[in-house]
C-alpha cells in the first residue's frame, strides 16, 4: 500500500523542526542529493527543486515531487523550446543560468538544493538577488562541522555554475562527511 504523504518540507520548515540542527539537515540533504543523482544519471533535471516539492510523512522517506518543469518531460517539446528563454522555475531557488535562459544542467539543481537546505537550517528565506546564492553563513554555529556545512552551502549556491560541485554524488558525500564532523 502506498503511504500517504501529508506534509511538504515547506510545512516542516515553518514548524521549526530541526532549525539549526545542521547535522540532521545535512543527512536529509544527502538523501535528497542521492535521489537527485539517480534522476540525473537517467538524464532528468528537476529545474524547480524547492521545499514545496519535497513530500514526506512522519517516519517516512523524503520524496522529490512535481517534476512538471523537469527537463526529461519537455526536452522533446517544440513548444517549450521556444518558450524556454528565461525565468523558468521558482525565482528564489533558481540559479542565475536557469533564470536567464530557462536551461541548466545538474548544477542548477545543486544550487536549488543548497538554497533549500539553507532555508531549512535558518527557518527563513534570505533577501537575495536571483542566482546570487548565499554570501553569508546560514546560522551562527561555530563548530568545525557547522563551519564546513556553511561553506558547502555557499559553494552549492555559487553564482558561477562551474564553481559549484559537479554532481549530486559529490554533494551527498560532502553532506555526509560534514554530518559526521562535530
How many separate structural domains? 1
CATH class: Mainly Alpha
CATH topology: Transferase(Phosphotransferase), domain 1
CA radius of gyration is 16 Å
Structural class per helix/strand content?
Answer: mainly alpha
The second-level CATH architecture is: Orthogonal Bundle
Q: Determine the N-to-C terminus distance.
A: 39 Å
Order of helices and strands: EHHEEHHHHHH
Number of strands: 3
* CATH H-tier superfamily: Transferase(Phosphotransferase) domain 1
Number of helices: 8
The pLDDT mean sits at 86
What ranges have pLDDT less than 50 throughout 5 or more consecutive residues?
Answer: none
Shape: globular
The profile of the biggest β sheet is:
3 strands, antiparallel
Strand order of the largest sheet: 1-2-3
The fraction of residues assigned to DSSP E strands is under 5%
Helical fraction equals 40-55%
Amino acid at each position: 500500500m502506498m503511504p500517504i504523504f501529508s506534509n511538504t518540507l515547506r510545512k516542516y520548515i515553518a514548524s521549526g523542526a530541526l532549525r539549526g540542527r545542521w547535522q540532521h539537515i545535512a543527512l536529509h540533504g544527502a538523501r535528497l542529493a542521492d535521489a537527485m543523482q539517480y534522476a540525473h544519471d537517467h538524464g532528468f533535471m528537476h529545474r524547480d527543486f524547492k521545499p514545496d516539492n519535497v513530500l514526506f510523512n512522519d517516519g517516512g522517506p523524503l520524496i522529490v515531487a512535481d517534476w512538471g518543469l523537469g527537463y526529461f518531460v519537455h526536452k522533446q517539446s517544440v513548444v517549450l523550446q521556444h518558450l524556454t528563454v528565461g525565468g523558468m522555475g521558482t525565482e528564489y531557488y533558481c540559479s542565475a543560468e536557469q533564470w536567464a535562459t530557462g536551461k541548466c544542467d545538474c548544477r542548477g539543481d545543486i544550487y536549488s538544493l543548497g538554497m533549500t537546505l539553507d532555508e531549512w537550517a535558518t527557518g527563513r528565506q534570505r533577501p537575495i538577488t536571483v542566482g546570487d546564492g548565499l554570501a553569508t553563513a546560514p546560522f551562527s554555529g561555530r563548530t568545525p562541522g557547522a563551519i564546513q556545512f556553511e561553506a558547502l552551502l555557499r559553494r552549492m549556491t555559487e553564482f558561477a555554475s562551474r564553481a559549484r560541485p559537479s554532481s549530486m554524488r559529490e554533494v551527498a558525500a560532502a553532506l555526509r562527511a560534514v554530518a559526521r564532523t562535530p
